[in-house]
Write a structure and sequence with these properties.
alpha/beta; Rossmann fold; 8 strands; 8-stranded mixed β-sheet
């Protein structure tokens, strides 16, 4: 029997070099993902990374596995379809706060609701970085550094974890790009979870939001046990400071699609036959 060679994190990186800005938090997320893949001994040929559009959505090209770089906001739709069609694959979707919560917001809500067995990593820098610094759904109301919003956005920012909980996500965690080792553990746990897991990553953009370097002094790891009660989790997500990291909420629930009996049509030919008169 051929002995399986244990791969290291660097073995999961492709030969394509990242082109993110110096200091971008997404470098750390890439490192965390490859560390998690190595820790789980994931087979490259059975893994697919799916993304939409944006700085963070370039990430699948930098990992030595299968990848799909989709269109803006549609990464989750593609990833869910792939997982349902090929449940044997490990499917990880990823993107940014604009891609995931703005044009892709409806897909995010329904992905949480369906509870397909896959992982979604959102690198939240509270900005549209690739298109030069517009406000995103998570931009603070008083952010005045953009010429497009010189007086602030005037719009209340999303609370991604609260939105995920209300929509039905069964695993919710938060990481920080300044702590890639902890983030690798979070991603590994998220991938192992049976259901839809949402990893919210605070990933700084020092090009357009240099003040985000202050996050390092604010971020703190949650010490309390993981919440399993929805009411308690709702209280946390609505009133927390948004800077605590770790696995925040976890619950077991049947995944989608539901398991059918062996008599249920599963192929196009069987489905067509089931519609015949008298069948």
């Amino acid at each position: 029997m051929t002995e399986m060679i244990k791969l290291k994190a660097k073995d999961y990186k492709s030969t394509v070099k990242p082109i993110w800005c110096p200091g971008c938090g997404d470098f750390s997320v890439l490192n965390a993902i490859t560390k998690a893949m190595a820790a789980l001994a994931i087979n490259k040929d059975d893994t697919v990374l799916v993304s939409g559009i944006g700085c963070s959505s370039r990430l699948p090209a930098y990992v030595d596995s299968y990848g799909f770089h989709g269109v803006h906001g549609r990464g989750l739709a593609i990833a869910q379809g792939l997982k349902v069609a090929r449940p044997d694959l490990t499917v990880i979707a990823m993107g940014g706060d604009g891609d995931g919560f703005s044009i892709g917001g409806n897909h995010f809500i329904h992905a949480c609701r369906r509870n397909v067995n896959m992982t979604y990593i959102v690198m939240d820098n509270e900005i549209y970085g690739m298109t030069k610094g517009q406000a995103s759904p998570t931009t603070p109301m008083d952010w005045t550094s953009s010429k497009l919003t010189p007086h602030g956005t005037g719009v209340r920012p999303f609370k991604p974890t609260a939105l995920a909980l209300a929509s039905g996500a069964t695993w919710i965690g938060r990481g920080y790009s300044g702590n890639p080792n902890q983030m690798a553990g979070l991603i590994a746990s998220a991938v192992e979870h049976q259901g839809f897991s949402f990893v919210h990553v605070m990933s700084q953009c020092i090009t357009f939001c240099p003040g985000q370097t202050d996050w390092k002094a604010i971020v703190h790891e949650r010490q309390e046990p993981v919440l399993t009660n929805e009411d308690e989790a709702a209280e946390l997500f609505l009133h927390e400071d948004g800077f605590q990291t770790g696995i925040l909420y976890q619950q077991g629930r049947d995944t989608w699609p539901p398991q059918h009996s062996s008599t249920t049509p599963t192929t196009p030919a069987q489905l067509a036959e089931s519609f015949r008169i008298g069948s």
